[in-house]
Amino acid sequence: MRILGILVCVATGAMLIWASGEFPPWGDPNSPASLHVSPRYIEKTMEETSVPNAVTSVLADYRGYDTMFETTVIFAAGVSCFMLLRLFSGRERSSHHYRHILTGLTLRVRRKGKQLPELEEFEPMDSLWTPYDLILRTLCRFLIPFIQLFALYVIAHGHHSPGGGFQGGVILGASMILLAISQDMRSALRRIRERTLAIFSVAGVAIYAGTGALCLILGSNFLDYAALSRIFPVDPVGARSLGIFLVEVGVGIAVMATMIVIYHNLASEGFLDEGL
Amino acid sequence: MDRILEVVIAKYNYWIYIVLMMIGLYGVIAKNNLVKKIVGMSIFQTAIILFFISMGMKKGATIPIIIHGQEASVRASDYINPLPHVLMLTAIVVAVSTLGVALALAVKVYKEFDTLEEDEILEKIRKS
Amino acid sequence: MTSHLPALVVTVPLLTAFAAFAAGWLRPKLCFPVGLTGLGITAISSIWLLAEVLEAGTVTYELGRWPAPWGIVYVVDRLNGVVLAAISLCAFIQWISSRASVKSQFSDRIGAFYGLELLFVTGVMGITVTGDAFNLYVLLEIASITAYALIAMGGGRAPLSSLNYVFMGTIGACFYLLGVGYLYIMTGSLNMADLASILQGMRSSQAILVAFVIIIVGVWLKMGFFPLHGWLPNAYTHAPWPATTLIAPLMTKVMAYVMMRLVLFLFGPEYSFGVLGLKDVVVWWASLAVVAGSVIALSQKDLKRMITCIILIEIAYMVGGTFLGNRSGTTGAIFHLVNDVFMTLCVFLAVSSLAFRQRELDMDTMEGLFSEMPFTMGALVTGALSIVGVPPTCGFFSKWLLLKGALEAGHYEFMVALILSSLVCLVLFFRVFEAAYFGHGERSHGHHRMREAPLGMVVPLLVVAIGIVALGLMSGEVISSIIEPALPRGVL
Amino acid sequence: MIWQLDLVILTLVVICGIGSLMIKDLLGAAILFGAYSFMMCVLWAVMGAVDVAFTEASVGAGVSTVFFVAAVFHTTRRTKD
Predict the structure, then answer these.
(1) pLDDT grade, residue C341 (50/70/90)?
(2) C-alpha span between C313 and C302 (Å, rounded)
(3) What is the dihedral of CA D37, D40, D45, D46, to 10 degrees?
């Protein structure tokens, strides 16, 4: 296998490098990639969508259809993780964790159905055990609101600066993951329940696809945000900007919920009681 | 000699990207451990993303956010090509989705076979 | 409304998937009817779209109303119109048929399962309809990720097979993406029509050649073409039945469609067949793959695995037929693709109804099935005859065209491989039927009599079986009015 | 864009990539993969792809690493290669 791998890699690599001889020099402003399609995005973004960040306007408008499926991909991944790992009831864990009280080391004992004899230095880490670390807890409690605030800023300010729905959604999701790591999974789940997460993840993607479908119902093409000017008091260019904002919010919600779902299912093997 | 140096300077970036891709590809094909294979897969995907990003690069240009106050006179050569960035945002999302599903599968495989080494798993299958 | 049909065929299953997933959390009973409605609308609109295309020619749809090279467009011509209709019908029929087994196997996660199935359909429909090279990659990943998850639900070895599929599938998709990157760096465009017109002037470029090779290898990996097929038999065998009957007929066929689209339309026949000179090598290779697939299929004992291995043979037919590069061969390949969707669906559905009543599918446990499950076995016979290539089933006509194409191109080895593999298929299915027909009477002890599969499975199965024969009877019309005009000009 | 900086970061990326494949401990591999992603993110920021760099910093170096650690925690750290 190893030799085969090396052979395949060397052959492919040699072929790719051979072909790279024809590429335009690295960073060449006159390469076909910079001259053929892309100038319009840069020159017309203000005029056609009134969004200064060309990446956002291309992402959510010119090629908004790709982004809709990008959100769908992450939604599909969340649903897949849920479906593959989630265990609903009555299954016993294959391993148990014990914590050495003096050193804080964690041991894992893999014995199906059997418990270890009671030992004084070890405490079992079952679903009722909660870690307690004052520094970690306090720090995270202070940190999480700011992380979430920043995430909201990233989502809302994607028109003018780097960022947007996806990045903001990941940061929001990461703040909840941090909560689950620093405290425990059950208290994180008490803040935002599994059912809520599932509904959020589907609602986020549905906002995106629904915005597109709304444009279709309003008589224009799918995802043609200019049609939104018929129901919102904005001109067609402003409507594009508005449409971009709407879908970014949808992406943010979907990504946040999906990231948390994936983490919860991976970190608890689908039991959703204890995390890392 | 000068010509060779010129070619090297113009192209060495591409070569390093391709080397990186091949490291990842080797990881997927030849590694024995399933999580290592997943790491290799992610490296391969990220290297392709790097290759795409470098296509949009223009020397002497700035990031693709139109500077405030200059909206009237935008020249395309002043800003980096945004299209590869958009494509690669999508590709990053695809990469992390694949990673999530692959890790979930690896956890399931471990539950079933109690090991992550491919040869040991095949051995167990052959025995049963 | 008719002008929005290309968008509807993708967005309706997408929105239905969300609805089904949400229904799984709120009212699980609603999942099935919601999906049924969605797939029904999809099937109707794709057939309507095909009619529209036959009447008015190629339909283009600009998403977000951005013109072609800047925005993403959907282009529907005769080739993908007919593939779309086949896929959506197949998904609709499969949806009805798999109801009972989904209910019994996945009652606690029914919403997630149905949601993923619908997303898979969205993915394959989108791959077929899109006119943008990068959009194809994103949709490909949707179809793949959902397929990984659906396959891994089989239990036992399924997660391992699925993980293998993840690795191979991701390498394939990455190769495709890398090839698109090579095309983009040389041309600066992602739109297929635009790319095709720019590539006209770049016939001798090394980078384009490498892009062609990488893209085709990536697609072959996804298709399971012979030396790259390692993931396919395991993944489809260990998958749960409702997932196999959906994924096996669609995934590989759609990738075969992608190969045809790229070879015939993006790179163009002059380039793919003329300039490169890879044509003969690929046809030889396909012949080899047909033989290898037959050998692999012959060595299987399990019925499910055996019919899975037949897919390998069918895929090799399509590759070979496409690369024959003449009119009959390419027409045969396209027609075979459409037929194969239904043939595979028929055989898989029939075997899944057998499996629904009887857990093990060894050749030895099949005695007396003809008298116990006459309708299921009848449909299985029809599907098998079509795969072997017996008139009047549709499989005969596409194989005939492939043979004709091979004869015209002078590729006798492909003809030999075709005939040989048909004989192998005959032997394979004859083994099954012999066991099922003649084994009656010497029943092993303790074997209770099996009932016919439930009505919800038998009716769709019979519809598919009748459809195969009908498609065969109408093949002349289908070929002359839909498939032959679909070919690009360069194919002689 | 300064080519010396570019070269240094590229070298670090390659080293982290090889390291995460070579190291004989899956947790270490996960952390090195996080480092690899972060170097990648720096590289993209240098190339002017700020949005992509932002995404990679939050996804590749952040969430992906957490996923890896979660998966390794529930399986094993042992690896033969």
Answers:
(1) very high
(2) 17
(3) 150
In angstroms, how far is CA B18 from the centroid of its own chain?
11
**pLDDT, tens only, C417-427:** 999 999 999 98
Distance between CA atoms of residues C399 and C409, nearest Å: 15
Distances (CA, A) of C33 to B125, C95, C115: 40, 10, 13
Residue in chain D closest to A275 (alpha carbons) equals D70
Q: For residue B25, tell me if it sits in a domain.
A: yes
Cα C313 off chain centre by: 13
End-to-end Cα, chain A, rounded Å: 35
DSSP secondary structure code for residue C132 in this structure: B
Residue pLDDT, tens place only, C444-467: 544 556 677 788 888 999 999 999
The answer to the question of residue B70 being in a domain is no
Whether residue A92 is predicted with pLDDT greater than 90 in this model: the reply is no
Considering only the beta carbons, identify the residue of A6, A27, A262 that sits closest to B100.
A262
- The pair of structure tokens assigned to C402 is 């492939």
Q: Is residue C308 part of a domain?
A: yes
Eight-class DSSP state of B4? H
- What pLDDT score was predicted for residue C486? 82
Name the pairing type of β-strands A122-125 and A106-109. Answer: unpaired
Q: Is the dihedral of CA C298, C301, C302, C305 positive or negative?
A: negative
Task: Find the length of chain D.
Answer: 81
Domain annotation covers residue C52: no
Q: What is each CA distance from C134 to A212, B24, B91, C177, in whole angstroms?
A: 20, 22, 10, 8
Residues 62-81 of D with CB under 8 A from B: 63-64, 67-68, 70-72, 74-76, 78-81
**Distance separating alpha carbons of residues D60 and D35, to the nearest angstrom:** 9
Per the CB < 8 A criterion, the answer to whether A237 and A49 are in contact is yes
Tell me the residues of chain D between 48 and 67 that have a Cβ less than 8 Å away from chain A.
Answer: 50-51, 53-55, 58-59, 62-63, 66-67
Domain containing B39 equals 2-59+80-127
Q: Give the three-state DSSP class for C303.
A: helix
| Domains: count for chain B | 1
Q: Which candidate from B26, B61, B74 shows the least CB-CB separation from A5?
A: B26
AA identity, residue C325: G
Q: How many CB atoms are closer than 10 A to CB A5?
A: 18
Q: What pLDDT, on the 0 to 100 scale, is given for residue C440?
A: 52
CATH number at residue B34: 1.10.287.3510
> C360 pLDDT band (50/70/90 cuts)?
low
Report the phi/psi class of residue D17: left, alpha or beta, with left for phi > 0 and alpha for psi in -120 to 50.
alpha
At A217, list the tokens: 């119902």
Domain count, chain C: 1
- A139 has pLDDT over 70: yes
Beta bridge partners of B65: A53
Region of residue C27 (phi > 0: left; psi between -120 and 50: alpha; otherwise: beta): beta
DSSP-assigned letters across all residues of A180-213 = HHHS-HHHHHHHS-HHHHHHHHHHHHHHHHHHHH
Q: Is there a domain that residue B71 lies in?
A: no
Q: Quote the pLDDT of residue C364.
A: 64
Q: Which residues of C touch B25 (CB under 8 A)?
A: 171
Of B3-12, C128-137, C407-416, D53-62, the poorest mean pLDDT is in B3-12
Q: Is C191 helix (H, G, I), strand (E, B) or coil?
A: strand
Q: State pLDDT tens for residues C128-140.
A: 999 899 999 999 9
**Does residue C178 have a pLDDT over 90?**
yes
Q: Is residue C374 part of a domain?
A: yes
Q: Does residue B72 belong to any structural domain of this protein? A: no
Q: For residue A9, give the amino acid letter.
A: C
Cβ–Cβ gap D49/B56 under 8 Å: yes
B61 Cβ under 8 Å from any chain D Cβ:
yes
Do the bridges between strand A122-125 and strand C73-76 make them parallel or antiparallel, or are there none, so unpaired?
unpaired
Give the 3-state secondary structure of residue C313: helix
